[in-house]
Amino acid sequence: MRAGNLHAVAANLPIRAVILQSAAALAALVLVSAPAGAQQVTGTPGAPDATTTIDGRYLPNPPPPFGGEINLNAAQSRPFWPPRIVPPAGAPNVLLIMTDDVGFGAPSTFGGVIPTPALDRIAASGLRYTQFHSTALCSPTRAALITGRNHHSVGFGQISEMATGYPGYDSIIGPESATIGEILRENGYATSWFGKDHNTPAFEASQAGPFDQWPGGMGFDYFYGFVGGDTSQWQPNLFRNTTAIYPYLGHPGWNLTTAMADEAINHIKMLNEVDPSKPFFVYYVPGGTHAPHHPTPEWIDRISAMHLFDQGWNALRDQIFANQKKLGVVPADAQLTPWPSDRLKNWDQLSADEKKMFIRQADVYAAYLAYTDHEIGRVIQAVQDAGKLDNTLIIYISGDNGSSAEGSLNGTPNEVAQFNSVEVPVADQLKYFYDVWGSDQTYPHMAVGWTWAFDTPYKWTKQVASHFGGTRQGMAMSWPDVIKDPGGIRNQFHHVIDIVPTILEATHIQAPVMVNGVAQKPIEGVGMAYTWDKANANVPTRHETQYFEMFGNRGIYDKGWYANTTPISPPWELGATPNPDVVNAYKWELYDLGKDWTQNNDLAAAKPAKLTEMQELFQTQAARYQVFPLDNSVATRMVMPRPSVTAGRSEFSYSGSLTGIPMGDAPQLLATSYTITADVDIPEGGGDGMILTQGGRFGGYGFYVLKGKPVYVWNLLDLKRVRWEGKEALTPGKHRLVFDLKYDGLGFGTFAFNDMSGVGRPADGTLSVDGKVVASERMEQTVPVILQWDETMDIGSDTGTSVDDQDYQVPFPFAGAIDRLTIKIDRPVLSPADIQRLRAAQRDNHSSE
């Protein structure tokens, strides 16, 4: 409105219109006060095609003032449309790719024997980075990657499933740490997230919300993927935005790795056709190659025919190391760290059966990596097919941490069993799982010997933040319009927190100081654009200092020096209870990385003053970034109570059907006594179907009616099934079915003492119909720690996989009616004598270490 008309017209306008005009005038003052040097405007102001860039310090951008004219009659008035917000001219599309659990020496791009042509393509057209680092674990790396801040700074000192009530460990990315998705969306980008979401707190992952910590709440317009640390690629825990979907039902051979690429390709095509001028930010993070290793049979056959691993893991390390020197991704004077013969067998010490099984494991893992890279290549090709490759910044990070050692020394056909500290002997693997390894009949993980080899030339593995085997990732970056050194190698030290500032540099968008009224934590990373020019190939790194910490293992980098602790417990011993004195129980090492690329020559004894200086620097950095208190527990943190919708509750009631309650928001029936009461109505002709289930083929329970008879099954990690079954079919009409389990142990109440002896204990179960016991069984062992985490609790039908394939196939809907389902949990309570005993045992255990 013209200023001269404001007071004259206001007298004849409704009060709401006056308020709106006043608000617009206030917004105009805000805009005037903001610097406008970089603002770019197109079209006629107020016209439907007008666009503008924004200052970007305050998001969302304050609305502009109304610039038209309002009179009593529309014929004498002039409309005004606020300009559409767009990124700065020439801002690139961004395709940010990261795979999962891939060691530095696995892909061909960094010397490995596993073919990764898509990663090769990005490296050949752009740059290869040889000193790029993760945090050593999945969701912490991902939190750092999308926020540009250290993982403890944004609450992800560990995975959400182990969250504790400290700021650095609560697994909540707060509103003071807006993601790159939020920043780019508010600046006019189309934002999307495909694949793994391990940054939604496990205790906020249900359909009840809240959803502010889901991708849509973190700035991503579209999400297609799974929530959690991993999932089956055959029957995944899959979502479109916040809605669970089951596209695999009725489609044998369907695999998420391909389906996800299809979805991303279609999304990119849609964006390009609907609005070709709008740049996109696609965050593409497939499940590969985190366990379960689930490639298609064709890829297994293709890799097996190459005989990549017949030589064994020792010779494989030598081959990878030689390749790395030829490629120049390690210096000519780099040293190969020694094989840990005190912990891992040499290949020539293995039996023929062990070699056969382990080669099969490696073939399937390699097939999964090659398959994943192939599908990534299809997405990259889609960008080219859309005519946008030249102006697309592609960042391809090989792994969110080093290769995983969570499969035990022998590997496992069921990762869920391994997380419960249950190992499957090689003889049983050969007998029962060899031919189906990688299929939906397994949830497999390879042996640690391969893990160590795929981290060549470094020591240690995933989870170990003190050594580069856990944190050094191969990374390639291309942007044909800007990066003009195809095939170049960059050796500057960098970290995942440097990706957000790099994207902001590329897009000429500044980090906001306030988002949704909340002041922002500063971005803690350092942009990498200075490395793009060929003339700057060898300039010193601008990322001069970086701390590392995970499960008590820690390190500190500063200007070419690196100090770190020595792990006291290997990451494949998931049930270990290391000495909780994290401050004093660890030995420290010191390395001069300018002369010792691989952490091979410990200088701690020779340079004690330098080590002390580095240790003090770690303390300073740790205090700054919310690392304290240090905690080296693993299994005990998994069972700690968290603020889920079940917290503090012992009784749960449901009616009808309800599916998809995730593990973190469902009643937990491990290491406890409980009673399940189902009031059901059986129709004429029988009422088969699922009443209640949690977990699936690789660990869980089911309460159902089969051939008219009530059945309760405990699936003990796909190694054994304990079954209760009534002898007579239920008559039509109403019945009360009760399953009661009495647990013989102290349960999770012992976690406060770092003692897991109270879990996995025996239990006695009874199944009753209308007050009469119809079956009784004793379980000599129970599942100790966790059920199959990518499956949900379902009532009235079953999603995912069945707890017993011989009985039924999903979805197995209940043909009758569930009037009421009640779960009552009777958790063990520690007596004063129990507490005294546990404390004494803990003192004895650690005094003997």
Automatic annotation (TrEMBL):
Family of this protein: Belongs to the sulfatase family.
Signal sequence interval, chain numbering = 1-38
The species is: Kaistia nematophila
The Sulfatase N-terminal domain, residue ranges? 92-509
Write out the GO MF terms: hydrolase activity; metal ion binding
Listed A to Z, the keywords are: Calcium, Hydrolase, Metal-binding, Signal
Q: What PANTHER family does the annotation carry? A: ARYLSULFATASE FAMILY MEMBER, BLL2667 PROTEIN
Q: Which domain of life is it from?
A: Bacteria
Coiled-coil regions, chain positions: none
* Stated name of the protein: Arylsulfatase
